[in-house]
Amino acid sequence: MSRFVEIALGLGSLDEVSAALARLGLAFERAEDPVSLHGGVECGDVPVDVRVAAGACESVEDFGFVADAAGLANLVCGEPDRARLERTLVTPLRAELARSRLVHDATLAVEVVEAREDGTVRLRVRPR
Question: What residue ranges do the domains of the chain occupy?
């Protein structure tokens, strides 16, 4: 096991991230009380508000999300998974959150959502 790192994403709230994870087909655990990411020799367990089991998004260890002081979700993961999750999770998550926000705007129609490996998201939006 490795040490856990917290990555500020600025993506949305825990509710928004949980809904996006579900739409992406990722199983996760969210309880009233925080659940633990299991540490090892280098570090102890770390509490998170949303936990995803190891193996999701090609991860080696389990990972999760916590809310920062502003209420935005931060990713918490082991150091070995950081770059992998930035590629396999963060990019599609950004695309799904952007699509979700725009879909709720009755004046706009989202035609295309494209998440690129470099982390950019391309949307084609037109007025309704």
Answer: 4-127
User: Is 61 in contact with 84 (CB distance < 8 Å)?
Assistant: no
Residue 118 has pLDDT above 80, yes or no: no
Type of residue numbered 36 = S
- For residue 12, what are the CA distances in angstroms to 20, 54, 98, 120, 128? 10, 23, 10, 16, 25
Cα 115 from chain centre: 14
Query: Could you tell me how far CA 73 lies from the centroid of its own chain?
Result: 8
The pLDDT, as a whole number, for residue 52 is: 96
Structure tokens belonging to residue 44? 């102890």
Question: Each residue of 19-65: pLDDT tens digit?
Answer: 999 999 999 999 889 999 976 556 668 899 999 999 999 998 999 99
**Rounded CA separation 57/25 (Å):** 11
